Amino acid sequence: MKAEEARFLWLMIFFDLPVRTKSQRRQATRFRNFLRDDGFIMLQYSVYVRVGRGQDSLDKHVRRVRSVLPREGSVRALQVTDKQYGRMEIMLGLAKKAEQAGAKQMILL
What we know:
It comes from Bombella mellum. Its cofactor is Mg(2+). Homodimer, forms a heterotetramer with a Cas1 homodimer. A hairpin with a 2-residue loop joins strand 2 and strand 3. By secondary structure, this protein is an alpha+beta fold. The protein has a single domain, classed as Alpha-Beta Plaits.
C-alpha cells in the first residue's frame, strides 16, 4: 500500500472496571498501564485511544487488549475513521465550585 493510500483508523477503548477492593484497583491500574504502554493515550479517565495504519494494525491491538482483560468489569472497543475522529466535538460545562475556588487561591498566591 502506498503512503498516500494509507488509511488511518482510530481505536477507542472504553472500560468500566470495579475498584472496591485492593485487588480490583491493582487490576484496573495494570490494565490502564498496559493501554498506555501499548501506545494508547487517555482521552478521558476510562476512555483510551490510539491511531493505527489500516485494519490489520487495529486488529493487532484489539487482540492485545483482549489478552489482558481484567477478570471483572466491562471493556468495549470502537473503531472509527480518521475523518470521523476529526469531527469529534469537545463540550465543556461550567467549572464546579471547588474548581473556581482553586482558581481564586492561585490568584491570591
